[in-house]
Amino acid sequence: MTLSIPADNHPGRVQGDLMQVEHPDLRGKVAVITGAGRGMGLRFSAALARRGVHVVGADIDGALMDEAARSVELEHDGIDGVGDVVGTTVDVRDRDAQQAVAELAVERFGQVDLWINNAGIFPESPATDIPVSQIQATLSINVEGVLYGAQAAASVMRPGGSIVNMASVAAVRVRRGRAAYCSSKAAVSHLTECLAVEYGDLGIRVNAIAPGFVDTEMTRWVQDDPEALAKALDAIPLHRLGSPEEIVGPMLFLLSDSARYVTGHILAVDGGSRHV
């Protein structure tokens, strides 16, 4: 693996194709990724397809998901050995809908080896003003969505399968105005550990990635506020935002045979901010 950090005029931001990580053991496997229409889900789809993994990307916005699948195909046009990317629609709050995604993957590619529970929301509200609709939606999408995805995955996976959930450093750090989000990610972290214990009986590994501040649309609110950005960078020992590519590398590791004796682990990718 090589890592380079090119110069950037934006304070605390890293750009460029930072990591070239190859996991040959992933080639020919089949992955399901929820929330794959944009952001990190789209990055995961592209990274896995590039390594010969067939991907079923699922998103609540079906048109966006179809566009995302086409964009991955165009990105890899002319490259040999690239995996296929198929888009479909899913509301992760619906357990039957997630099961249907699993069955679609089996019908299309014959199996499911990898599952990334990536779909989530990032609501904001002072704790005293959190409306019922917000806490219900947050727990339903961010927590129930992970559980239903894991259940669907386990129903079709063979021993050796790998599930990765998207947690957050917010599971262990308080962010003002994000009580619903923080509590949901704390639940995802512990749910990951619970699933790892029970799904170990099936030969399935379950881990989670816990990102900190990463340069995505979800953190645009802090990047567009110089004062907030300076405060955020001061709370990160590496004093910069992470890049999406720096989440992809750890994700590939957890999915791959390199991590075949790793389960129930919450891998923080946060520049050390959980310690500050």
Structural account:
With 276 residues, the protein is α/β, with parallel strands linked by helices. It has a single domain (25-268), classed as NAD(P)-binding Rossmann-like Domain (Rossmann fold). It is 40% helix and 13% strand. The chain has helices spanning 39-50, 62-75, 95-109, 132-156, 179-199, 220-223, 226-234, 245-255, and strands at residues 30-34, 54-59, 85-89, 114-117, 162-166, 205-211, 266-269. It has a 7-stranded parallel sheet, sandwiched between helices. α1 links the parallel β1 (30-34) and β2. α1 (39-50) packs parallel to α2 (62-75). The longest helix has 25 residues, at 132-156. The protein is globular. Mean pLDDT is 92; it is low at 1-9.
Features:
Rossmann fold, seven-stranded parallel sheet, 7 strands, disordered N terminus
Question: How would you summarize what this structure contains?
Answer:
This is SDR family oxidoreductase. With about 280 residues, the chain is of the alpha/beta class.
Q: Low-confidence parts, pLDDT < 50 over ≥5 residues? A: 1-9
Q: Characterize the largest beta sheet: strand count, sense, and whether it forms a barrel.
A: 7 strands, parallel
Main CATH class: Alpha Beta
Secondary-structure element string: EHEHEHEHEHEHHHE
Mean of pLDDT = 92
Derived structural class: alpha/beta
CATH fold-type name: Rossmann fold
- Could you give the distance between the termini? 28 Å
General shape: globular
> Considering DSSP H and I runs of 4 or more, what fraction of the residues is helical?
40-55%
Write down the domain tally.
1
Fourth-level CATH superfamily: NAD(P)-binding Rossmann-like Domain
> Architecture in CATH?
3-Layer(aba) Sandwich
- Strand composition percent: 5-15%
Radius of gyration, in angstroms, nearest whole number: 18 Å
User: Number of helix segments?
Assistant: 8
Strand order, main sheet: write it out: 3-2-1-4-5-6-7
Annotation, overall tally of beta strands: 7
